[in-house]
Amino acid sequence: MILWGVIFIRSFKKVSICILFIALGFFRYWVYLPNIDENSIHYYRNEKSNVKVQGTIILDPDRRKSKVNYTVSVDKIFIDGLWENVKGRILASYPLYPEFDYMDCIEINGRLIEPPEFDGFSYKNYLSLSSVYSIMQRPYISRVRFARFSIKGFLFSFKNLFEFRLNQMFPEPSASFEAGLLTGSRKGIPDGLLQAFNITGLTHIIAISGYNISLVIVLISSLFKSASRKIKVPFIIIFIVVFTIFVGSSAAVVRASIMGIVSVMALWFGRQSQVVNALFISAFIMILWNPMTLLYDVGFQLSFLATLGLILMGNNIISWVKFLPERFGIKEAFAMTISAQIFALPIILVNFGRFSLISPVANILIVPLIPFAMFFGFASVVVSTFSFNLGFVFAMPAWLVLEVASEITKLLSKLPMASYEVPWFNYFYVSGYYILILFAYFVYPYFRTIFFRRRGLNMNRFPISNVKGVGDDS
Predict the structure, then answer these.
(1) Where does 41-148 sit in CATH, by number?
(2) What does the domain layout of the chain look like in residue ranges?
(3) How far is the CA of 458 from the CAs of 84, 99, 224, 296, in angstroms?
(4) Is it the case that residue 87 has pLDDT exceeding 60?
(5) Mean pLDDT of 448-465
(6) Rounded to two decimals, what is the model's pTM?
(7) How many CB atoms lie within 10 A of CB 100?
């Protein structure tokens, strides 16, 4: 009786804590929503006539093939012959030229409207991830003041210069492919190749994630190999932050960066990092900063769930596929793909309506090639600053690997039943799927232990292990 009382008290505490956090989550979401009044720029949208506003470009301009998207923090609006102070963010799409840069102060004249809703896609929810709730239709932009120097602006300029040099070293589409690997930029990748990546489940290779953060940690650790932890750890953290800003600070990068920083901080205090704790801490910080991330950021959802799948099931899957060869990372690539997809599959189905049947094979063939393309591509840019011709020598192996990877991806995407359409999958099935996953992972081991003990069997013959190594998203 006492035992049941203790179990009830502990369960009650856990449930109470969960309810408290859920309540705090709703409160944080309510506080985050914009207050639309006369002091908000969103109060003046959907007007019949154009409005004139002034503001500052606060994000790295999103340059596409035929236009540039500028995210602007508005501070003034022209009303009845006077400039009035307002606040809020808007999005303005403009032709490629003339160019405007990060932190330029600009004046925009156009019609302010609410972001539209498309069939199967909410543009309004997508823009809310950047706290943007209005867009400027048919804008005319003029520069009021050039940007002042800032470290963030310098990093964006360096990134643009880096991508420009890649375009000099590689022909298209290899240049855009390489930029996707090194900086996470997809703007120049042909639609056909992007579609092939989606069908074969290889989109993750052109999305900066935990793998790249791990490379940063390994690189800085190697450079400061003989230094003490008090010197090494701060430098690693600084470089992680710089790299995150450099590649654009997407949800997957921020999640991986926070996770990497938490892991490195564990080294500072001399404790072994618990990867699951690091993952949940990073997710908690991101959601606390922007609650819309949890609701509308599919990239964050996939990144979090794929990493969780790798952490919880990676070793189990590897132990189940011992028949696969370890050479060229075949076994690891297959196991990581399966363990990541087990957790991320419902989100993929409900958002994209497609399940890639060829993904495990595609990952086995392509993923081992990517580090070579990244190394030689980066080396070609660095070496080309001293000798342009020598840079081409390093670019050739990278170009060959990229061409092989592209052709294999296109070939696999054209195979019959490479992917299967699942238009009927909805959030009801998502809930049921994850309930089964939680039951299988947390409840099954207890029944399994009782089953083996009652029969006097050795459980070591049928191992089920939890992974406590460093995870990465797939």
Answers:
(1) 2.40.50.140
(2) 41-148, 159-308+359-413
(3) 77, 69, 46, 46
(4) yes
(5) 49
(6) 0.74
(7) 21
